[in-house]
Structure formats: structure tokens, C-alpha cells
Amino acid sequence: MLSKADLETPRERALLTSDTFNPLNIRSRTYRDLLKLSRLEQKQWNEACLQELEALKKREVFITVNRPKNRKVIKNQWVFDIKSDGRKKARLVAKGFSQVEGIDYKEIFSPVVRFETVRLLLALAALEKWYIVAIDVKNAFLYGILEEEIYMEELEGFKTGKDKVWLLKRALYSLKQASLSWWKEMEKSMRRIGFKRIQSDAGVFIHIFKNGNLTRTVIAVVYVDDALFLGSD
Fold first, then answer.
1. Domain spans of the chain?
2. Which end of the chain has fewer CB atoms at under 10 Å, N or C?
């Protein structure tokens, strides 16, 4: 939690003109700020950007098209972070605040599991001595398929200069409908492997299966891109 806190102070803000990044407020930096770094650091951050771009291509998030006429093209920005293990992370996010309701998005509500349910199931798992496996879905929102036609500017630092834009096929972080698109794909995936969502809490899935004369139950608790799988086996 501390690593995500906004620890920026006037002193740290003064370092905007410095030749080095301050890790305390790294998330406030822009791609242009990379130019103030040493060549080695520029190379490291550029590699982080390329890794993000490769993830987008792998998931077929976009296709490059000519800039459309009479259509709004949203912008984007890089968000930089340094993980607790020292890894440099670059994430591309859309400027979703510029999306137009009814054109760029319709529904945006995405259900999440109730915290009371999580506490109840963890208590049950402790009493019954169940196994618990926790997972985090990497680049989760990139799995969501967009239903709307959304165009976005090319990336800062990676523009072709040919007046091209991206036609987004899958959700991108900070899009209005990104969380809902991911939720729909996650629910489909859970159904394919035999889980059923309970009616009383949208974030809880149950898989009951038989192994000979034994009946096994696995409970999955999903909160956005984090999940717990609980069961006796």
C-alpha cells in the first residue's frame, strides 16, 4: 500500500527539472521526462515500454488504420512504476475521460465480490483446513473484447508519423468500459471450465464435480483481476 501512496512533496516536485527520477513520485512522470535520464536508464525504461507494446500486440488489442474523418480519437499516456523488486514497469492507459457516452461506451458497471463474503469464505477455509491458491491475472483488461468502435492516437515515442491511429479491438486500462469487458470474458472463461456463478454474490463461483464416490467442491472468489480458489483437495 505504501508503494502506491502519493508521497510527492514540493521538494520532490522540484526534481522535475532534475536529471534523475525520484522513485517516490515516479508515477507522475511522462514519456518526455525519460529524455532527462542517463542513456542506460533511458534504455531500461524504453525496454519496459516495448514489453508493454509487445503484450498489446500479443493480445491483438489493436489494428493500425488511417485516421477516420468525423470521429473523435482519444489520447493515451504512459504510466511508469518501479515494483518492490526493482523492476521497471510501463503501462499504457487510455484517457478515458475524453470518451463520449453513447458513442464510445454504453454500459460501464462491473460487479465485484462483497468484502463480507471474502471474510466469510476465508474463515470457513480456516475452520475446514481448506487449501487456498491465490492468482493475479496479468494484463487482465486486455482480454476484454470491445463492442464499440474506438479510435486512439499512436503511442508517444512510437509514432509512425503517417497520420495513423489505433482501432481498439480489446479493452485498454482507463477506458470507461474496460472493467466490464474484462468481467464478461472472465465469466465466460469460468463457465467453460465448469464453474457456476452464484446469484447472491457476483464475485463467487462454485465448481462441483464427482471423483468416483467422492464429491468435490471448489470455490472461486474473484475481485477484478485477483482470485482465490478454495477447496478441500
1. 38-231
2. N
